[in-house]
Amino acid sequence: MSNLDKYQNEAVRARSKSVLVIAPPGAGKTTVILNRIKYLLEERKVKGIHVIVITFTKAAAENMKSRFKEMHKEGVIPFFGTFHGLFYKILLRNKDEIRLIESKDSYNIIRKVLSSYIEEVSDEKIKEVLNNISRKKVSSKDLEISMTYDIFDKCYEAYETFKNERGLLDFDDLQIKAVTLLKENPHILGYYRNLIKYILVDEFQDCDEVQLEFLRLINNEVFCVGDEDQSIYSFRGATPKCMINFEENFEGSEKVYLKYNYRSLKNIVEVSKDVIKHNKERYQKEIIAFNENQGKIELKKPFNESEEANIIALKIEESKRLGNKYSDTAILYRTNMESRSFIDAFIRKKIPFKLLDKEYNFFNHFICRDLIAYLRLSIDPFNKEDFNKIINKPFRYVSKSAIYGVMNSKKRENVFDILMNVEGVHPFQMRKFEELKSDIAYLNKLSLNSAIDFILSDLEYSQYIREYSSKFKQNQEDLLDIVEEFKSSAMEFKSIITFLSHIESVEENLENLNSKGNIDSVILSTMHGVKGMQFNDVHIVNIVDETIPHKNSMENLEEERRLFYVGITRAINNLYLYAPKSVRGKFKDSSIFLNNTNLDSQCNITDYGLKEGDVIRHNYFGIGEILKIEKDTISIKFVQGENKKFSLRTLIENNLIEKIICEV
């Protein structure tokens, strides 16, 4: 164990009954756990059968087991696995059969119930319900749902009924039943207390209340390694309190602090400390960068998400030319929707990328599919599927029988002509259908952005969204964010046909991601998705108010700050932070988390990503070139020859100006 630093060595050799090792990012916690096992087996002569090592994923358990086998080649290997794997073994020993519900069945149950209340059910909505079902079982904390409790209760009831009727369990049931078994059967509890003498827990900050109760029930030596500053899974029932209250929960406790961050260069460590120190629910700790070299840290304030994506694409191309791998780089964001601009940019520039959430495609959202259907119908008025999708969005009093008549017609003609000849269509509807036919054809004569605005206003799709939000109890602001993101995605395209071609290209590229194997690729992920990973170059994007921290999580500001901290501490050498001045067409202030560092003041950028020589489009005066920016005054020369001065902030906040970056 000569390769350990003094803090790691202190942790490995701790003799208290209950040991909490507080391990900041890059502190070598896996090394500590492996050496602790080695110490127990070789120096304290503990038998491997009495040692249990808990990780939070099967992959982590297999990796740790493999590494331990290389270190210790004799005797019985301890159990390496997850809490769920351990509980499964406990129940299996005391029951004839255990049958687990399959994930596809879980999804289908929730999808079926939600479909009764919500017109379009996304995978993310299903995940939200399943996470809250889990949270309800294993945590006393309030649920975090974006629907009414009545709808959630219907989902919960259907899910539990399905399982009970078939004798199925889920992972949370495994936990609850195993702990209940031990509590109600002293002889079984006694057996496991004699068997499990030493429990080592990795990522202890991610424990839920049931798992914590199990550790207290066994009441033998525990060695828990974690970091309350990286507790980011409250939606699964985890809480930093399991670390903060360690001394209350476990008798004979001792805390050991690991102090060295072996991953990140010094200034990256310092920035991360500046961010996280503002949280109250944490241990005050000293974190020291082992490598005292300075990394590159940049804060940029591009004009919008499109320029942000282009800046990052150029950096990646330059890094590749210097001989680095694409996989050395990660783009991190708060929500999956933000991946859209990077997918667009990387496809155009032929930069290979990998989405950690492989199933996500922004354009699959029902609002996007509706808008695409309107646009596609304008260039292909024979398309019955698109007609079916939009005809009653908003409601136009077209009956199911009339729609059925169109969909089953063998005629190859304009769908609205077919509709007007369907039996049962009233004469008063004819004029409305003629107008709609004309309006949809008119879309193809407009610029792409004007066509989208026409759908939203003149064709009243915005009104449909408001009605949908009210009817299905959905957050209207979240739905309108989808609309604004869709409009942003269209900004770089002139025509409907080129935009639709781009969407097809995105779909093809995303479908091909899974078949490409392990090719060298840039990583695109939410900050939640890269917990435990590290990258040479980390780009954290959209660090602006209402995104980081997220507007729906303001009541849990400390967890949002922990999430940002996790993002920063993935970086080894280079950290790039981005706070666009405009997101989805709205002016944005930099995140309050940037105010916790001195980076924002150092940048002193007040030009909102604009500079002399940039070409812009003004809503009223048209195309122009920026002549000068001085404080809040911007001078622009328009193509008509006029020179005009404006308040820059007024232009940005009222969305009167957009930078022309690249038109396709």
From TrEMBL:
<dbReference type="InterPro" id="IPR014016">
    <property type="entry name" value="UvrD-like_ATP-bd"/>
</dbReference>
<protein>
    <recommendedName>
        <fullName>DNA 3'-5' helicase</fullName>
        <ecNumber>5.6.2.4</ecNumber>
    </recommendedName>
</protein>
<dbReference type="InterPro" id="IPR000212">
    <property type="entry name" value="DNA_helicase_UvrD/REP"/>
</dbReference>
<dbReference type="GO" id="GO:0003677">
    <property type="term" value="F:DNA binding"/>
</dbReference>
<dbReference type="InterPro" id="IPR013986">
    <property type="entry name" value="DExx_box_DNA_helicase_dom_sf"/>
</dbReference>
<keyword id="KW-0547">Nucleotide-binding</keyword>
<dbReference type="Pfam" id="PF13361">
    <property type="entry name" value="UvrD_C"/>
</dbReference>
<feature type="domain" description="UvrD-like helicase C-terminal">
    <location>
        <begin position="266"/>
        <end position="532"/>
    </location>
</feature>
<dbReference type="InterPro" id="IPR027417">
    <property type="entry name" value="P-loop_NTPase"/>
</dbReference>
<dbReference type="GO" id="GO:0043138">
    <property type="term" value="F:3'-5' DNA helicase activity"/>
</dbReference>
<dbReference type="GO" id="GO:0000725">
    <property type="term" value="P:recombinational repair"/>
</dbReference>
<keyword id="KW-0378">Hydrolase</keyword>
<dbReference type="Pfam" id="PF00580">
    <property type="entry name" value="UvrD-helicase"/>
</dbReference>
<dbReference type="GO" id="GO:0033202">
    <property type="term" value="C:DNA helicase complex"/>
</dbReference>
<dbReference type="GO" id="GO:0005524">
    <property type="term" value="F:ATP binding"/>
</dbReference>
<dbReference type="GO" id="GO:0016787">
    <property type="term" value="F:hydrolase activity"/>
</dbReference>
<keyword id="KW-0238">DNA-binding</keyword>
<dbReference type="InterPro" id="IPR014017">
    <property type="entry name" value="DNA_helicase_UvrD-like_C"/>
</dbReference>
<keyword id="KW-0413">Isomerase</keyword>
<feature type="domain" description="UvrD-like helicase ATP-binding">
    <location>
        <begin position="2"/>
        <end position="265"/>
    </location>
</feature>
<comment type="similarity">
    <text>Belongs to the helicase family. UvrD subfamily.</text>
</comment>
<feature type="binding site">
    <location>
        <begin position="23"/>
        <end position="30"/>
    </location>
    <ligand>
        <name>ATP</name>
    </ligand>
</feature>
<dbReference type="GO" id="GO:0005829">
    <property type="term" value="C:cytosol"/>
</dbReference>
<keyword id="KW-0067">ATP-binding</keyword>
<keyword id="KW-0347">Helicase</keyword>
